[in-house]
Amino acid sequence: MVAADEAQIHVAGQELSSIGGQVTPVEVDLRSEEGVASLYEKATANGRRLDAAAINAGIGRAGRFVDGNLDEDLAIVDLNVRSTVHLARLVLGDMVERGSGRVLFTSSTVAAMPGSYQSVYNASKSFVQNFAEALHDELRDSGVTVTALMPGPVDTGFFTRAKMRNTPVGGPLPKDDPSDVAKQGYDAMMRGDRKVVAASLMSKALGAANMVLPDGVKARMNRLIAKPMGR
């Protein structure tokens, strides 16, 4: 279990340990190369073998790109893109050498949507989606599987951290249960699927619509859900 600065991770670790298995909470900042290296070192300490990995860290924000804080946008790139590539290289290198392993990347249904009012975030998820699907193909004969998880809006602390509670998607619109998303992602990873859209019928419908709607329409859809209300 990994988190940047959330004390709750230790409580969650204790709860998971109580139902079986060994859980080691790790607090690192994956926006830095040092944080990624530290995580990998701790995860593989004492010869521990990684049979599966869920690369899930991500942040976002809403608003017009030109009005936003550049440091915040670059932090999205650092965490959602750079750290994903860095950690994947470390994890997959060992797995391919061993000839077995499973990796689950958290992408998003917005990976296929031009992100009006979420331009950097949606672009980062487009990167993750393409990256994961490319690796799925590259490694198909290696004994290692790569799966992309594409959830819709999920009821977690993401929207609060992204300061998006004043947007339709972060506020009144319905959100999926994170346990349902995690279960569908885990099952898809264990099957070795290329990708899975999770979890509700609404999210699956959005994923299907993104495959056929024109980009201009999808950009306007994203504006409707991501533009701060009252602006």
Automatic annotation (TrEMBL):
InterPro entries: NAD(P)-bd_dom_sf, Sc_DH/Rdtase_CS, SDR_fam
Gene3D superfamilies, sorted: NAD(P)-binding Rossmann-like Domain
CDD domains: SDR_c
Keyword terms of this UniProt record: Oxidoreductase
Keyword Oxidoreductase in record: yes
Any GO molecular function: oxidoreductase activity
Protein family per UniProt: Belongs to the short-chain dehydrogenases/reductases (SDR) family.
Record-linked PANTHER family: OXIDOREDUCTASE EPHD-RELATED, RETINOL DEHYDROGENASE-RELATED
Name of the protein: Oxidoreductase
Source species of the chain: Mycolicibacterium doricum
